[in-house]
């Protein structure tokens, strides 16, 4: 792979010798690669190797040059080292970070994933007052097939000429997504807009002025003079006796100009736009045809802790989804994810305790390789105590770029040399297991940038995960109280981000790497990665090397990935309902004896066992067990087997049979011999019924 670096007219101090050593590749420093030294780029793309260009500003220009030169290379990548490293008050120390960013750019692209297809024929629904709707329609009608649903005449009313189909009535709901929107409304107005000729006779005749120029009657003003009916005459468009009917229509796109939107959720469906801004109108014109997006998630129902036996346990993914793409299907013991509504934020995968939902594009394993490459290259180049800054590729990337420009203009300090920015599709797509792995790879701190782009519930979900990380790291001795190796950074402006980075990562607040370097890889399975990183942390934990090492660490209840189950032995009858409900195989029975056993390492604290238990005998205790028992099966409760009073074969537990007899002893159907049969196995019970002398047979 060929790497091209440029100091952008000597505005960033680059050390080609140090970078060459870090990347094990000879590098030539350019000063105007996009201008008078463009020949070096053309020469590079004539080879068969992939090419990495350390510039994103002129990506379009380089792309045009590659086309003109009929480039032979199949892959050209662009990476930003200027705003992220070279344009900073700390740029002279940024060589290790720049080497890390270049090394990460050499990694292969993520493996392809299935896609979700949208098809739009350009059928546009505009909801709003008819004067505003017609103004927007005039700018779109040459490209889109426009239908207006009037919500009043507005100040100017509708045009006299009928240029677009107009619907009227009461909007009940709008559902769907790009290419598949469904409008449901109640046609409850006396004027039938399909019959109306817009002759204006009814408007002129109405004494209450209840009819506007959207040709609908305001029934709150109407006093039933019915002069409008007479004025309409033979046309017959006005009928006060018409029954209100519910109607539906389908559209590909929706432009909503109303004060109250059809969708109140944070992440709106693709193809739905609020307001007639220039950006929305331009975007609408482009949405005709067939479109694809990655399917961002994988779902494994057998791992899901949402429901068993129609009992609901975990619902974290449903609560956090800002697009309302995740819903409960309790009858099928699972959740449903609508790929058309999913916006790829990954928040559901982050809060999923079992890994039933996993992020697919890119996969966690691919993100793990990227983080490991960044941190190992940074350390190889002489960098220490790196801070990983996770930010979104949209609003977050804009802030990082603005901060770099501000630093070049000497109005900000820019990204410190030890802060490595990592762009994600969405910051909510990585969670606890990856954050802790980054620390195990050598990072001193992981910061997650939260802008106005993210939904409020994402911050709540991430904070809960970070509280778990803090409790573990503090409890194991890797972090001092008040020092937060993993935390959220709120910023909506570049200068705010600059202030926060200086406050959190420089001076006395700068943290040092405390976790010995790990070699394990991030796995596709979330619990496997979490298990490996916890094994690594426990193996080297400072607190476990002290004489007074604790046996367990208490964890916050919200979002705890580990914990135990406590059993009220007086109430538990060992019916094993909890065992059948447990999705993680943490609760187990014993085929050889009446025992309820527990494997704490597997417990995800979903609560299905608690909601399933008929005796209310179970409770959850979030904690991290530090002893070897964490990986061992232990007995939570046991009792004696109950033998059949006739053949003595064990067929239940002593407590279970005693509880059943106690509950049924007063029932009229279980008196005398019938009560005694409850103490028999199924075979002996049948034999006793047919051999009893006081039983009568019906032939």
What does this structure look like?
The mean pLDDT is 93. Strand 3, helix 3 (59-68) and strand 4 form a beta-alpha-beta unit. 29% of the residues lie in helices and 21% in strands. The protein is an alpha/beta fold. A five-stranded parallel beta sheet has the order 8-7-6-12-13, covered by helices on one side.
What's this model, at a glance?
This protein is of the alpha/beta class and 699 residues long. Helix content is 29%, strand content 21%.
Task: Give the arrangement of secondary structure elements.
Elements: E1 2-6, H1 16-23, E2 29-30, H2 38-45, E3 51-53, H3 59-68, E4 76-78, H4 82-86, H5 95-105, E5 115-120, E6 123-128, H6 130-138, E7 145-150, E8 166-167, E9 170-175, E10 181-187, H7 201-205, H8 227-232, E11 245-251, E12 253-256, E13 272-274, H9 278-286, E14 289-294, E15 297-299, E16 307-308, E17 311-312, H10 316-320, E18 326-329, E19 334-337, H11 347-351, E20 357-359, H12 364-380, E21 387-392, H13 395-408, E22 419-424, H14 432-440, E23 445-450, H15 456-476, E24 486-490, H16 494-505, H17 526-540, E25 552-554, E26 563-567, H18 577-581, E27 587-589, E28 595-599, H19 608-612, E29 618-625, E30 633-638, E31 641-643, E32 650-653, H20 654-664, H21 673-677, H22 682-691
Parallel strand pairs: 1-2, 1-3, 3-4, 6-7, 6-12, 7-8, 12-13, 21-22, 21-23, 23-24
Antiparallel strand pairs: 5-14, 9-10, 10-11, 15-20, 16-17, 18-19, 25-29, 26-29, 27-28, 28-30, 31-32
